[in-house]
Task: structure prediction
Amino acid sequence: MNPDELGEKGESRFKELCADAGLICNKSDRDRAGWDFIVEDQFSLSSSLPFDRRKSPISCHVQVKTIHAKAKSVRIKLNMAERLAKELKPAFVCILTVNDAKEVVGLHLLHILDDRLSAILKRLRQQAAAQNTRALNKSVLSMSPISEDLVPVTGAALRAALENAIGLDLYKYAQRKQVQLAELGVESVIANVELRFQKGANKARELSDILLGLSAGAGSFRILENRFGIEWPVMDAAIGKFEFTPVASDSCRVVVRSKETPAVGMDGKVFRIPALFHGADDRTRLDCEFVKIDFFWNFESLNGKLTLSPTNFSTTVLGWMNYWRVTRALCSTGAIIEIRTERGQIPLRLPFEKPLGISAAAVDRWIALTDAYREIFVACGEEPSHHYGCAEIAAQESKLVLAKVLLEDPDRKFSFEIPLDAASGGSGSLPSTAILVDMIEVGPVSLAYHVLASIDSRIEGDNIEVEISNFVFRGGRKIGSDAGDLEAYKRGAQNEENLTLCFGFDMEGWFIS
Result:
């Protein structure tokens, strides 16, 4: 039989086997896609699942090759092999063996996955590395069947072999093949980087900043992939910007102490950059939430630099309290910075010799404001875990000062005037007890609370002079940010205390709510 007759014989027998197996066998009209047949199964009618939950049945590409019994291998054009390899669907080469009596006496099913997929990818990499300009359809790849590929020449055996190779889930199969296409034969990925520095720049300092992720680098770079022992550039840029994400070499605890403030501890990470040029310094950076400490040293000296983050960030109440206490300590003379690393045996204690040029009184104000915010949450039984910024809490300063007074000095008296017609239809009569309801809005959280207060009032012309005192904190909770949410909270408090007179407080002072 000539090759065409041999091929026709094999394809006809393969279609018969598919029919015997109950598989749908669709032939390619043009054998240029790397496969002769698409073989598919039908959806199962015995499944207990609803139709929309049934898994996709078998579907695969098959290239059929027919050989004489004495032949030991088949040859496939490299472009066809590439198509079989890159197709995410299962792909097979089915080798049918014919004897001298023109009978199909053997069937081998070669699965294009694992080692066979690796062999195709390796040949493609070699062809590219050799700068072989010969078209892939002029190059051939030899495939030899092994005993594990042998399948009885029956439809049932063919179906069983396909099902065993593909599995029950086509999507998982495609994911597995996709991983192999990306990773088979990959031995390493190496990045070669050429940095460019500004004229006159401190190259050692600038490079350590880049490696610590503090700034972006500019220059040219090439990434080489070593696959099947052959390097190939997968990215080649003449110039561009790139950033590094450093990996910490240790963890640390930084404690700041002074005679004027309690000790404040912060957890952080340690990053080390060795000397990169002759005569340059080694560098270690301690990175805490809002404090960064850099050490530069060589055989002759050790220098440190502490950087305190500006106040344009967001953190929690606890974070802000630590921030302002650290700032307050660093404003003091004689502050000590203690550094403990997880791997170190002895803590390092360093004097902070140059106090920050910040007003201690201004920092104390921020500490008091932050503490007042924390106290009102504690009093309400709520957890202040949200993040907020400096400007947001500063806008509520008067309300926070009032809340702190009501909690810590309930005997304090407040006097103010209200219009006569604001009370009881103008009669000037006020009950002896009232409720004060207020809301504090900082960041994404609104906190409402109420207190009871004793009322002493008298009429003075067109106004009523009011004195409130004897404050009793009654509770509070988080509410929504709409005006209606505060009004609903107020009505609830009035019903709970069985009182109607309610005072509020804003930037302009007291008012009847």
